[in-house]
Amino acid sequence: MRKEEFLENLGSIYYRLVDEIERLEKKIKAMDNPPDVKKELQEIDYELNQLQCLLHDY
Questions:
Q1: Where would a tag sit more exposed on the chain, N or C end, judged by fewer CB atoms within 10 A?
Q2: What is the DSSP annotation of the chain?
Q3: How many angstroms separate the CA atoms of 10 and 27, rounded?
Q4: What's the pTM value of the predicted model, to 2 decimals?
Q5: Alpha-carbon span 55 to 1, nearest angstrom
Q6: How confident is the model at residue 40 (pLDDT cuts 50, 70, 90)?
Q7: Of 25, 15, 4, 24, the residue nearest 51 (C-alpha)
């Protein structure tokens, strides 16, 4: 896989994760923030930040 393809795929994953987090945030707000869902969202947010760091390195 070329570097350009890799970065495109990584970018695509990043933006799908952003969309998923926004969807989950709306769902959580509607559910009065159950703790287990909040923890899951925090874990996803952490992984998203890690991915964002990888994207910036390239």
A1: N
A2: --HHHHHHHHHHHHHHHHHHHHHHHHHHHHTT--HHHHHHHHHHHHHHHHHHHHHHH-
A3: 26
A4: 0.52
A5: 16
A6: confident
A7: 15
